[in-house]
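Batch job 17 of 40 flagged for manual review because the log was empty.
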Amino acid sequence: MSGAAPDSLAAMRRFRAEREADWAALERLLDAAEKGSLKALSDADLVALPVLYRATLSALSVARATSLDADLIAYLESLSARAYFFVYGVKDTVGQRLRRFFAADWPAAVRRLLPETLAALALMLAGTLIGFVLVARDPAWFDAFVPADLANGRNPEASAAALKATLYGESNGRGLTVLAGFLFTNNAQVAIVAFALGFAAGLPTAVLMISTGAMLGAFVALFHAQGLTAGLLGWLMIHGGTELFAVVLAGAAGLHLGRAVLFPGRQARSAALQAAGQPAAAVMIGVALMLLVAALLEGYARQLIVADAARYGVAAAMLLGWLAYFYRRRDG
């Protein structure tokens, strides 16, 4: 009987020694969260919080089952109750989530995909160069790059006057509304496909970036041959700074998934793909908003603003605004 108490005391000491670090870590996270809300915790802390909570619950269960020190049981009960509120308690409101997404989550996801963004941009620019050179040398290539319904009469057979009229012609308000809706649907489909094809090791996404660039290059070559390059770029870029940026980001998200498929590292391929899908999904949510803005610019501003200088001004302001939003340095 005399050896029972020392054995029990030793077991309790071992029990505390093996788990006390987890309890201390959980208590530290809870102290920080209670002082400044969950925003005070890093992403790694937010991932660790439920893990430490479950470990504490497990320790509490063992402590109760083995009738360990009552003070220790009371401490674990209190710690578990505090953690429960943050793990399963009241969540952020929709407004808070939206503010966090636009203030931090979306820009952070875009920055994380910077290598893939540069790769997608390079592929699109390469396609643009290919389309421009081939159509400039042989206008018959135009139909290979641009579908007839998208060209809508803007083809090598069109006169300079007809092409110019498409850049500066007037449109009624109702027509602009219909056009804006159509363009948003079309551009959203391109972005979604670029993202979805990333699961196929990213190769189809790369091909789509090149083909999108080739179509753009074909249009530039068509108008360049008629001396309308400056007018076309103003007509395109008033919305293109946003629209093409969105398509590039969608391509980057697809390439990010493709890289996880090809190079999962030490993780299982499914786990690597799941991890890559988190920032890619955040980027795609934002891409949908960018395409909506682009559709409004394309369907309204591009038609209502006919001066080249004004078009370039709007294009530059939008592009610089997006770049500053995504890539400017944020303290803290």
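Reviewer: the log was empty due to a logging misconfiguration, but the result itself is present. Residues 98-327 form one domain. Unflagging and moving on to job 18.
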